[in-house]
Design brief:
three-stranded antiparallel beta sheet; globular; single chain; about 160 residues; alpha+beta
Length: about 160
């Protein structure tokens, strides 16, 4: 089982959870399937503050790891509950709800160590290679990047 961390105040997430019966598609997949949806963005794309870093990571991915999904427009999951709980504490102060998630057939995904993102500008390129090559830090925080569709449980596991 994989896990998704969701903001309880995200009314769009909860609306879609109910209306779409737990089926979510990544914005990156929407854009690929229908070019007229090129303006669809993920919450992360809209609000993250590391534009320079993400630009370098994306350039490295396109040049050296084009078979892997982009971080931009992806759905982010965690490989197990323990990792999801630790990431929830680290990034969101434990305020996110954790939902079980299943990656659907036809989706593209890979597991990376998010700790490579904890880098400074001179380290961006090397860290991007480490991230996309699957290299692990001494104390990894694994995340699953998904371009495609996931099915999410109706209720959080940490409610």
């Amino acid at each position: 089982m994989r896990y998704l961390a969701a903001d309880d105040s995200d009314v769009i997430f909860h609306h879609n959870l109910k209306i779409c019966k737990g089926i979510f598609q990544s914005p990156s997949m929407m854009r690929e399937l229908d070019p007229s949806l090129s303006g669809v963005v993920s919450r992360y794309e809209a609000v993250h503050t590391d534009r320079e870093k993400e630009t370098v990571f994306e350039e490295v991915r396109r040049a050296h790891y084009p078979h892997l999904p982009s971080r931009m427009g992806a759905l982010y999951l965690f490989p197990d509950l323990d990792t999801a709980v630790k990431a929830n504490e680290r990034w969101w102060g434990g305020k996110r709800s954790l939902y079980e998630a299943i990656i659907q057939k036809g989706s593209s995904s890979f597991i990376a160590d998010s700790k490579w993102l904890d880098c400074t500008a001179p380290e961006f390129e090397e860290s991007a290679h480490n991230y996309f090559s699957g290299k692990r830090t001494d104390d990894p925080c694994l995340e699953i990047i998904v371009m495609g569709t996931i099915e999410v449980s109706e209720a959080p596991v940490n409610a």
